[in-house]
Amino acid sequence: MSTLTIQPAGKTIETREGASLLELIMEAGEAIMHKCGGNAQCGSCHIFLQTGRKSVSKIGAEENAKLDTIVGVGSKSRLACQAKVTGDEDITVELLGFASGL
């Protein structure tokens, strides 16, 4: 089992296979926007996946299409609602200021 570290808070929780990063971030008590209910329609749960890419599902066509419409997207960008835990490597994500209430 891997862990998920949420930055900038530095909170670490255990993950479970098949759970989305959005679910885990919310279970950890962190504030993250998610306007469309996890359907890759709004892009409000945009995060940076800092480490642990091998433990997270690959980007699908729907997620990639939505990321293409978001300002500030980089190589570490993911939608937390679409990124699911698939492995046992530890994961670190960075919540963006507008999403984390900072």
In terms of DSSP E residues, the strand content is 15-25%
Average pLDDT metric: 93
SS element count, helices: 3
**What gyration radius follows from the Cα positions, in whole Å?**
12 Å
Strand arrangement within the widest β-sheet reads 2-1-5-3-4
Task: Note the gap between the termini.
Answer: 30 Å
Question: Major beta sheet, specifics?
Answer: 5 strands, mixed
Shape: globular
Instruction: Give the H and E element order.
Output: EEHEHEEH
Overall helicity:
10-25%
> What class do helices, strands and sheet pairing give?
alpha+beta
* Unreliable parts: none
* Total beta-strand segments: 5
What does the model show?
The protein has 102 residues and is α+β, with helices and mostly antiparallel strands. 18% of the residues lie in helices and 23% in strands. The protein has 3 helices and 5 strands, in the order ββαβαββα. A 5-stranded mixed beta sheet has the order 2-1-5-3-4. A hairpin with a 3-residue loop joins β1 and β2. The N and C termini lie far apart (30 Å). The model has no long low-confidence stretch (mean pLDDT 93).
